[in-house]
Amino acid sequence: MQAQYGVAPVSSQTVDTWVDSTGGTWGAPTFANARRIKAVRIALITRGSREPTQVSPATLTLWPGTTRALTAAERYYRYQVLSTVVPLINVIWAGV
Q1: pLDDT value of position 32
Q2: For residues 37 and 39, what is the distance between their CA atoms, to the nearest angstrom?
Q3: pTM here?
């Protein structure tokens, strides 16, 4: 599973940047930065049972610009990438 925050500029409700939710500024955002988070984008990779031959590509795309490389052993499984964007409606409606 991987997540990113949809971040808006200060005093705006429109997401203009997606940032990783780990490390650096956004791993533990300050109060001011937390108020800029307007949505959360989540991707989950599911895996089926093992196949007798390699059936998966070398990489899986979680969303544009973000991929997950598969090892040779992992390519013997079929994968499904499930992703969604969750708008933080309470934050948006409050005009925070």
Answers
A1: 87
A2: 6
A3: 0.79
